[in-house]
Amino acid sequence: MPVPHRSDPADAPVGTIPADGHAPVPLVNIANVLTVLRIVLVPVFLVALFVDSGHDTTWRIVAAAVFAAAAVTDRFDGQLARKHGLVTDFGKLADPIADKALIGAALIGLSALGDLTWWVTGLIAARELGITALRFFVLRHGVIPASRGGKLKTLVQSAAIFLYLLPLPSSWEPYLLALIWVAVALTLITGADYVVQAIGLRRRPRHGEAQVAAPEGSTGAGSTGAGDPATRDDDVAQR
Predict the structure, then answer these.
(1) Is the CB of residue 211 less than 8 Å from the CB of residue 220?
(2) Model confidence over 113-149: pLDDT tens digits?
(3) Span 24-210+222-231: which CATH code?
């Protein structure tokens, strides 16, 4: 008499059902917990940043530490999701939201305190919102894969923000300006690259039409969570 398998999908908490037919991925897993933690840390970071109008040295260091901790979770949640098969629809949605919320909150906070010019914040925010809208616009034609340039852009942005948060002496100002200019340049270059890729996608057959002839059970693009570029944010390639 057959013995029921202990990982029967009907008995497991539903997150995302993998294309290989294995048990569903539980919604509550370490990768998603880290993503939610990053979102929760955003208001904590802002509170620390605005203590005494941003002039308290100790609290500026605390704000920088909270920002760094949140940025580190951005590195590990995607790795854990892909390595251990923990990719979920929630993670694919929440991860880029968490990333942009953290960077956006930091830039707006620094500009509100007068530490960073508003045009830098506005330019980066416009790029992030524009690329996000563009990705949704071309989604029916295909997906724009993550790029190394996008990852480098996020890394440089995070490094610049972290240094701006620290109560550094005025002698650091030239180095901070140089770093933020590099971040702005990467923001524009990677943004232009994604526009070019989006135009190319619109000229190709639709994503679904390209896979009509794929054999049943195929794990080609779009059929799995961990390896599909659709599960990745344009900058951090987390999910």
Answers:
(1) yes
(2) 999 999 999 999 999 888 878 877 887 777 676 677 8
(3) 1.20.120.1760
